[in-house]
Design a protein that fits this description.
Blueprint (H helix, E strand, L loop, with lengths): L6 H6 L15 H19 L1 H4 L5 H13 L10 E4 L3 E2 L5 E2 L1 E3 L10 E4 H6 L2 H15 L5 H9 L3 H6 L32 E6 L5 H11 L5 H13 L4 E6 L5 E12 L2 E13 L17 H9 L5 E9 L9 H24 L1 H10 L13 H11 L2 E3 L11 E3 L5 H15 L2 E4 L3 E2 L7 E4 H7 L4 E2 L8 H9 L2 E4 L4 E4 L12
Parallel strand pairs: 1-5, 6-7
Antiparallel strand pairs: 2-3, 4-5, 7-8, 8-9, 9-10, 11-12, 13-15, 14-16, 17-18
Helix pairs in contact: 2-4, 2-6, 6-7, 13-14, 14-15
């Protein structure tokens, strides 16, 4: 499968889709039309040669600025106006839009049909506002020209972020160089694959499982990816949610060119509901809403969902665009599957729920800097494995198996032994006022210091330092019985005095 990407695509991938901006006076339709005009102006100025634009991009921008200036104060005559009546041109032909062609360009007003505009697609709206501005500029063949310039570029144009436009922004977790705002600006012109509710055992679930394993076997979906990348010059989007609606994710998959190498990236927002929604379509899985409405009305609502972002890269650097689909995409979807599995199955909330459901005691508080790792080990020690597939019997994203992980049994038993001896493992990720080195301390002392501790994530080696600390303090691991034992013939009373 061949994929031909031009320089135009590499530049255009920086833009992302639009929704929900303010501006343009009191009429939201006029505000939307003005925004689209501004996006067209930016699009033309950035791509005059690639598009072979037969008019001045600067002049187009000037016309748009005049339109915008007319909305500066409420008492001005707005130069974009919507009409509830039928519009006719001077030849009495019904039109979706008209403009004043017998006044100076700076005074020309654009009038648009409310009923027709409401039924237009994003592409049709862009074409219509384009036609009217080109008419004010007295450009010949403006109908054909407006359609040819916008066609196949509508999602890209509608994605262009305007200055200071932050429809979805949260300080502190934004990955450098990435734009979470793009997800709040998607339109119906974008390719959004709605993966629906995970783990239902449905045909869609089975298809998605096979797609993440090897996307090339699904020609219909890979064709959509090709169209998004090469025709629309846009990312391809994947949307999922958990069976209870408490978690969801949106992922943009797109190619990147760095120098002469190409790779495929996936940028995701992972949503976690932090308060219950008791009424409306967002109460559970929001299955009554379309993918775009579910994203905008539920997951991007920061009063109900928190989010963090994740960037996934294919591990393969390619020297040709032709290998992006054949090699880069399959490598990426395998990595993406792991990220999805980590989010849905390994969240603290879900791990605690699974432990409780299977009556497995959670000893993870004995190792505060690696609690989720210990919880995962506990489940693995009892033969449970994470999965995105369904149907789920008891709790989402976990299934019972006959295989028990020996290394995970050792870790879980270590946390259990510490609990039995009232101990806590402190490493360099747990920096407290009275102790800041790798050691075992009594829980009583640790709880007195807990308010003075700072927890970090330095990516330190684990669990080897834990086992070393336990061994130095008189513990040994009985491999036959898979238990940690504190030797009785050693003086271990110092453990409770640290």
């Amino acid at each position: 499968m061949k994929l031909i990407l031009g320089i135009f695509f590499v530049q255009s991938i920086l833009f992302f889709a639009h929704a929900g901006r303010e501006g343009g006076g009191g009429d939201p339709r006029a505000a939307q039309a003005l925004i689209m005009a501004k996006q067209l102006a930016i699009f033309y100025k950035q791509n005059p040669i690639k598009l072979e634009i037969p008019f001045s991009a600067d002049e187009f921008s000037k016309r748009v600025q005049v339109l915008e200036n007319s909305f500066a104060t409420p008492d001005q005559r707005h130069l974009i106006e919507f009409k509830n009546t039928v519009l006719y041109d001077k030849n009495h032909v019904e039109k979706a839009g008209t403009f004043d062609d017998e006044v100076p360009a700076d005074e020309a007003q654009i009038r648009l049909s409310t009923s027709l505009w409401n039924n237009f697609t994003t592409e049709e709206r862009l074409i219509q506002i384009n036609i009217e501005i080109l008419g004010i500029m007295k450009i010949k063949n403006r109908y054909e020209l407006a359609m040819s310039l916008v066609h196949n570029h509508s999602a890209l144009i509608a994605s262009i972020p305007l200055p200071d436009d932050m429809s979805y922004h949260k300080k502190g977790w934004r990955i450098s160089g990435q734009d979470p705002d793009q997800f709040g600006r998607l339109t119906n012109e974008d390719h959004i694959l709605d993966g629906g509710t995970l783990g239902q055992g449905s045909e869609l679930n089975k298809r998605m499982k096979n797609f993440l394993k090897n996307p090339l076997q699904d020609s219909a979906w890979t064709s959509q990816i090709m169209e998004a990348w090469t025709t629309q010059h846009r990312p391809f989007y994947l949307l999922f949610n958990s069976p209870d609606g408490n978690n969801a994710s949106i992922t943009a998959i797109y190619p990147i060119q760095e120098n002469k190498e190409f790779s495929v990236h996936a940028y995701s927002l992972f949503f976690t509901k932090f308060r219950q929604i008791f009424e409306g379509p967002c109460t559970d899985t929001a299955s009554s809403l379309s993918a775009l409405d579910r994203l905008n009305n539920c997951y991007l609502d920061q009063s109900n969902y928190d989010a963090h972002d994740v960037l996934t890269r294919s591990l393969i650097s390619l020297n040709s665009t032709q290998n992006l689909m054949d090699i880069g995409l399959p490598a990426l979807t395998l990595e993406l599957k792991n990220d999805l599995l980590h989010f849905y199955a390994h969240s603290e909330q879900n791990l605690s729920k699974v432990l409780l459901n299977y009556f497995i005691t959670d000893y993870s508080s004995t190792i505060p800097s690696n609690q989720n790792t210990v919880r995962k080990a506990a489940l693995s020690a009892f033969g449970l494995a994470p999965t995105l597939d369904g149907p789920f019997l008891n709790v989402p994203f976990w299934k019972t198996t006959k295989k028990k992980s020996i290394p995970d049994i050792r870790l879980y038993e270590a946390s259990k032994a510490l609990a039995l001896h009232n101990l806590v493992f402190v490493d360099q990720n747990t920096q407290c006022q009275s102790f800041n080195s790798v050691s075992l301390v009594s829980r009583d002392i640790y709880e007195k210091e807990i308010g003075k501790c700072i927890y970090t994530t330095m990516g330190l080696e684990f669990p080897e330092p834990l086992y070393k600390a336990m061994t130095e303090n008189g513990f040994y691991y009985d491999y036959n019985n898979q238990k940690w034992i504190l030797e009785e013939n050693k003086n271990n009373t110092h453990l409770n005095n640290k």
